[in-house]
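Reading a protein record of the kind used here takes only a little practice. An example makes this concrete, so a full record is given next.
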Amino acid sequence: MDLLKRPEVLSPVGDMERLHAAIAYGADAVYLAGKMFGMRAAPTNFTEEELHEAVKIAHANHVRVYVTCNTVPHNDEMQFLPAYLAMIESSGADAVIVSDLGVMSMAKKYAPSVEIHISTQAGVTNYHTAQVLYDMGAKRVVLAREVPLKEIADIRRHVPEDLDIETFVHGAMCMSFSGRCLISNYLNGRDANRGACSQPCRWEYYVTEKQRPNQHFTLQEDERGTFMFNSKDMCLIEHIPELIAAGITSLKIEGRAKSAYYVASVTSAYRRAVDFFMKNPTGKLPENILLETEKISHREYSKGFYFNEEPGQTTESGGYIRDYDVVAVCEGEEDGFIKLKQRNKFLKGVEADVLQPHTEPFTVLLDEIYDEWKNPIEAAPHAEMTVFLKTEQHIAKGAYLRIRRTS
């Protein structure tokens, strides 16, 4: 297979810590939000000053920055858009991600030097719509998650070569079309289309009968109920050659509300996978790269709609699969010791898996550990405690140490 163009690895960023993680672990670009008009209100997001600083840091590391402005705004919010878009322009951001045509029009006026990317919220599923948006000034379309791979290839053939195509390749999926869900708004007044989703699709539901309002019936033989709306997560890391062959420009990782560790781990996995496939387009993805996607908390994986398969729901539970715990983060070296900040309890003598930038993961034995006064200890039980490790192995500042769960 002839891979002509290296795809962009696009990582989610919810705050400065996650920005540094994305940059360190190989992102080509990041997407983030200011304090308004973003589809994820839960993350800290960025103040005006922080956004300017984030762009400066990213550009110094040759990483592009795309700012989300993709909520569905109401009348009373429109008065704030001109100043907000002008702020994005002044920050030096590379693109603004929009879903609303009115916002798109205002972006062209108030942020004229910033590229316009059309959000997945716009639900683009065909080449005619993509062409119309291109004619209106869009530089990129983020296709609806529901578009199969062969249809993506057809869109690519019918649109201008300089129109970028971006698709989600990893992370949570929504039970509604292109994320347009009203359940959260209906149940508790938190509008998913304005960034405040409470994720009721992950909740536990029962069926009731009109004459028996106090009697709950499950939808399967399980006393816990069923999670009928709860979508599986997406993972396309083994299919990067097919994605590139279909003409996809940017591989987007979901997760602006996820942790810095999640950003580091998944960005690292896709960075390494892209680099591998560019050199070995018909090769089999190394097991250690694939395994990285199992070292984060995730729901059961699927391949989304790419291959005309129904991605399905995870009906057993609304929770996550957690096979690994992050037990410490490296803060550097001090007096010949590795300085660690504890994240979860661990015992002396356990073997930790180390994730750090620019290297393959490796293991280190935590058999010589000391407290902050360099006294030997048998365990690190206290949250955020300083732990010193004696080892001959180099562990970089910012590296994550994780341990596989035994039960």
